[in-house]
Design a protein that fits this description.
heterodimer, A: about 210 residues, Rna Polymerase Sigma Factor, Chain: A, Arc Repressor Mutant, subunit A, 2 domains, B: about 270 residues, alpha+beta, Phosphorylase Kinase, domain 1, seven-stranded antiparallel beta sheet, 9 helices, 7 strands, about 20% strand
Chain lengths: ~210, ~270
């Protein structure tokens, strides 16, 4: 693994930068609205990216909305103390933290989702629970992108988040390592596993699709 | 199956992903590429990784926050502004002379890269002392362009729409090839003001990354710094024009962009 990690090109981008000293000259009122304007200009453009990550992580639109709102507010409060210079990676890290809080709070309700993937893998297609969404039951005639989204959502979240950050949000390995707080080696092995899981599920739906055509 | 970068093919699997993601350093990338030429199994695995990555390029997979959510966030922020006591409020605020809509960058750039600032002050003969350096202006312009509805003045992937749009607005005519086949689709163009003159900004995309390519008639220009505040700046001159590409893409993809653009220029 050490060999693999050392193969990663060193990127100049990093989340960690020097903290900037506060500017004491401004009056509190002007400071507040100016900070809001600055936040709106610098962070708000990444709202869609934040929503995308939240939506893939929660798999629920309403929860994603709540998480993004909470994350943007936390981001706003932490804006001046922000250590990083890559706004998008910094914001996505906050979104992920909000998701983990939400996930812990809703753990009981979510348990059926946790085992879903294992069940789908462990059982043959006709034995899988009929009301559960598995690669086989996801509607074949849905648009390809809808199918891809649904299949991504069947991957367990610690693998799914790496896949989404890399292939949907276009984050570098180093950024993903900082966002998810693991080593680059772990990012790489999780990404490889996530892609394998997706590939297996994708092949199943492709086979199903060709069967239906016949 | 023991050759190339060392280790078995199964140990090499992560490197295949690293290569597909442009994350390997040049030496390892070469070694893996060489291995792929001699190992059909790894070559097939690599092709599958690439094909799968292409599946994920669909724009529909990148979701959009609803207008309702955007409104909720804006309301919360502005309410938060009033509710948060001064001691907790974000302390960093722009000085009065700076553009209110985009106040943080000039100061941040000056703090973070004094060397780049010093190096670039000598770039243009007519640079005024107080004016921000050209590289700062380029990066600031790139960042501004990422803000909502500021990216393009003419939004079109059709080079035959974008190129004529510049006619009459500029005293020169930049080449506007569509590089979609090379993986850099043309998004549009706009006018910008950099280094004391009006320049053309051509906007390309790479997946979800935006590339601003600034074009102006070649003048006296030394090489710009390659990175500034996390953004890559790739500058070159060709055929009487100066080019500066700015993006948060990695430098390898920036170079791919440069060769794609250069290849598409009329010879």
């Amino acid at each position: 693994m050490r060999k693999v990690v050392s193969a990663i090109a060193v990127r100049p981008r990093t989340l960690l930068g020097p903290e900037k000293p506060p500017d004491a000259k401004q009056s509190p009122v002007a400071e507040g609205s100016a900070a809001a304007a600055a936040f709106q200009a610098v962070v708000l453009p990444h709202l869609d990216a934040a929503y995308t990550l939240a939506r893939y992580l929660t798999r629920r639109g309403e929860a994603a909305d709540d998480i993004v709102q909470e994350a943007m507010l936390r981001a706003y409060r932490g804006f001046s103390g922000r250590r990083g210079i890559n706004v998008r990676a910094w914001l996505l890290a906050i979104v992920r933290n909000c998701f983990l809080t939400w996930h812990a709070r809703n753990r009981a309700k979510l348990e059926d989702f946790q085992t879903e993937w294992e069940q789908a893998c462990a059982t043959e297609s006709d034995e899988a629970g009929k009301d559960q969404e598995t690669p086989e039951t996801i509607l074949i005639k849905q648009q390809e992108s809808t199918r891809i989204r649904a299949l991504i959502e069947t991957i367990p979240h610690q693998f799914r988040e790496v896949l989404v950050l890399r292939d949907i949000e276009d984050m570098s390995y180093r950024e993903i390592a900082e966002i998810t707080d693991v080593s680059i080696g772990t990012v790489m092995s999780r990404l490889a596993r996530a892609r394998k899981m997706f590939a297996a599920a994708w092949k199943k739906t492709q086979m199903q699709a060709s069967k239906e055509i016949q | 199956m023991m050759n190339g970068v060392g280790g078995s093919c199964s140990e090499r699997e992560l490197l295949l992903h690293g290569l597909a993601d442009n994350e390997l350093d040049p030496a390892n990338a070469l070694a893996v590429e060489e291995h792929l030429r001699g190992c059909p199994a790894c070559a097939a695995a690599f092709r599958e990784i690439i094909q799968q990555k292409e599946l994920f390029e669909k724009e529909e997979l990148r979701l959009r926050a609803s207008e309702a959510l955007r409104g909720r966030v804006l309301t919360a922020i502005h309410a938060g502004t009033e509710a948060i006591p001064a001691t907790l409020a974000p302390a960093k605020a722009p000085s009065a002379s700076q553009n209110a809509s985009y106040p943080r960058w000039p100061k941040a750039l000056a703090v973070l890269s004094p060397m780049a600032l010093a190096a670039s002050l000598a770039l243009f003969v007519y640079t005024v002392n107080q004016a921000p350096a050209v590289d700062q202006q380029l990066v600031a312009s790139h960042v501004r362009s990422l803000l909502a509805s500021h990216l393009t003045d003419v939004a079109s992937s059709d080079q035959h729409t974008v190129k004529p749009w510049f006619l009459g607005k500029l005293d020169f005519s930049p080449s506007v090839p569509d590089l979609a086949e090379k993986g850099f689709p043309l998004i549009g163009g706009r006018l910008d003001y950099v280094g004391g003159r009006v320049v053309a900004a051509l906007v390309y995309k790479r997946h979800s990354h935006v590339i601003n390519l600034f074009v102006w008639p070649a003048g006296k220009m030394k090489a710009l710094p390659e990175t500034l505040d996390g953004y890559h700046v790739l500058s070159w001159t060709h055929g009487g024009f100066s080019y500066a590409a700015v993006s948060d893409l990695n430098s390898k993809e920036m170079q791919e962009f440069q060769s794609a653009y250069e290849d598409a220029l009329p010879s």
